[in-house]
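Worked Example 4.2. Consider the chain below.
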Amino acid sequence: MEVNQQLIADKLGISRTTVSRCFTNHPGINPDTRAAVFSLASKLGYNYLEPRSNGKQGSRPNRKTIAVLICSAVEEYNRSDYESPGFQLLPGISEYAQLKKLQLDIHIIDPREDNLDKGTYKKLLKDKKSLWDGVLFVYPFPAEVIQGLMRKFPCVSLVEQFGAQDLDCIDVDHNRGVSHLIQRLIDEGHRRIGFFSRRYSVEPLWVYRRFSAFVEKVTRSGLQYRPEDVLNLYKDDTYTLEESYQKAIQQTKNGVTAWICPADHIAYDFMSVFNQYGLIAGKDYSITGFDGISNKASQFDLTTIQIPYREIGFQAARRLNDLLESRFSATQHVYLNGKILAGNSDAQIASVA
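Applying the procedure from the previous section yields the following structure tokens:
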């Protein structure tokens, strides 16, 4: 099947004219629609960069081009039950790009690719290097990739990255968000709170940030920190994901009444497994996430932190545009507040078995 604008239009249920206008920054296009078109185009491998300014191969577009690189396994990014946080960031990026007439070039890259000299990166740099003016990073990337691209382009990340202290970053305030969640659980009477994560192919600094916030808040609140109630975090842990669920079930039976998960998708999977063993969120235990994205397949409304995705995307694109004008200005790390979304996945301690 040929990948073209009509195919994109058919899959999204919009007109081909709307798709075309998304790629030309038409002012009448809603940023959310434009983000959906860009996202689908990247999944399908459609090259939507505008024709070259003078019609010659290899010349630059009329306006600046920002590469948006999303480090995610395609199956994770395309989950049907849970919308990817990476997609949530695109409307804000699109909104600023439309405002400033910037061209976007969006690519999903497998986290296992860790070298600019081979695979997708080698092809992208061969085909796109002369077109890109700057790069936005969505999700954690291998440190070698970050450092290599920073040497070639102005870069801004929408999540903190390992080994990249000089990289500008716009992110959510992890500490404040986790602190709000734990305080809510404490107010509900919980005194033994666990932390359940999952392992990723690229080290997730955001998980460690949220874990450090967990330790700080638990300690400041006078609760006992128990390493045995922390699962899927340490590098030397050798158990499988299924074994970690069994450990979490055992710890729940041993006295953990609430679990903090550093991402919503972790919490949704956690609740699904626990449900199979007859343990119901909001009844037999409490659980919270972090992201603010609903799961269509879940019977629960997760208590979580709503990340200001649109604002993060908008501010990151704006910061990158500033760097295109003054590349060597002082590095900025900006953290935006999220807000708590109360669901039915947590409960007063009196309701916990």
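The first helix runs from residue 5 to 12. Residues 234 and 279 are 26 Å apart (CA to CA). Compare this with Example 4.1 before moving on.
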